[in-house]
Design goal:
The protein is α+β, with helices and mostly antiparallel strands and 303 residues long. The chain has helices spanning 2-14, 25-29, 31-34, 152-155, 180-183, 244-250, 282-285, 289-292, and strands at 47-48, 54-56, 61-64, 74-78, 83-87, 98-101, 110-119, 130-131, 138-146, 162-172, 194-198, 216-220, 231-243, 276-278.
Length: 303
């Protein structure tokens, strides 16, 4: 029974199927009536500006196991709100990928839980975060749980519960062959609340850009109800290529009433939050600045 409870919590809370909510302007406006946390002060997504971000020679994000094929049953699901990919960790034969580093507590590790996408009906919208005034056609979120907490439901009750990696997609003429293993199964999940087991091997590293040296970090929330402010966001500016043809395959998925498109939350007020950017210039790379940087002493908010 407990295993079943964990799976339900994972699907309900993380994969955007928590309650009855929609993405129209009116529907987003009333999220907070049902989900009180959605009116919090540190909500996501936000607009990120490279000129306003605080540059620091932060440690890299260390991604362990990202080049290994995911082990265990991999499920792709059309939740009606997004397209999600999860791994049944109870049946996994190997340890799931995990990460540490950056501004995270050095004594904590964050284990991969799932990934999902947000996209638009047009090429000029879709991503949840905006970078330097640009809204990309799609954004992928990789969710990681602080291993100090037994499951997602417990992690969501702590401000250091989750780390979410955000990746933008940029359109090009040619197909991105690395996305084929996912896109080839879309006919099986075209309709709302349908799912399929993926039998082909998938490594998380194959889905992300090669250049992950530069990234932005800030404290925020889930971008869907219940909007818990339990997320350390790491946003990578280097986009993932995707062809026009591949992008359109997302736009013919169904949400049960019509096309599953424009499933992104409106921008939230940054407020007093700091946005940090990892920037390694020649001076900081050749000095002990990075070694001497007091990560735990950094503040997420302006005083």
């Amino acid at each position: 029974m407990y295993l079943e409870y964990q799976i339900v919590c994972l699907l309900v809370i993380v994969h955007s199927s928590y309650g009855n909510f929609g993405y129209s302007t009116r529907q987003q406006h009333i999220w907070a009536q049902t989900f009180k946390r959605c009116s919090g002060k540190w909500q996501s997504p936000i607009a990120i500006s490279s000129t306003k971000a605080v540059p620091l020679p932060l440690p890299a994000v260390e991604m362990i196991g990202y080049h290994n094929f995911l082990s265990g049953p991999i499920t792709m699901k059309n939740t009606g709100k997004s397209l999600s990919i999860t791994v049944n960790k109870e049946l996994s034969k190997k340890r799931l990928p995990y990460l540490f580093g950056a501004m995270l507590n050095e004594s904590r590790e964050y284990e991969f839980e799932s990934l999902h996408f947000h996209w638009g009906s047009k090429n000029n919208r879709g991503s949840e975060h905006i970078l330097n005034g640009v809204r990309f056609p799609m954004e992928m979120h990789m969710i990681h749980r602080n291993k100090a907490y037994v499951d997602i439901s417990h992690a969501l009750e702590h401000e250091d519960g989750l780390v979410v990696l955000g990746f933008f997609f940029q359109l090009q003429e040619e197909d991105n062959k690395k996305l084929h293993s996912i896109l080839s199964r879309f006919p099986d999940v075209q309709w709302n609340n349908t799912e399929v087991q993926i039998n082909t091997s998938i490594a998380l590293a194959s889905l992300i850009p090669h250049n992950i040296d530069i990234f932005y970090m800030y404290k925020g929330s889930l971008t869907t109800p219940p909007c818990n402010e339990a997320v350390a966001w790491i946003i990578f500016p280097t986009p993932i290529p995707i062809s026009f043809k591949q992008m359109n395959k997302f736009r013919i998925l169904s949400n049960g009433e019509g096309w599953l498109v424009d499933n992104y939350r409106h921008l939230q007020d940054t407020g007093n939050r700091k946005v940090y950017v990892r920037r390694m210039d020649s001076s900081s790379a050749s000095t002990p600045d990075m070694v001497d940087l007091d990560i735990l002493g950094l503040r997420w908010f302006w005083q």
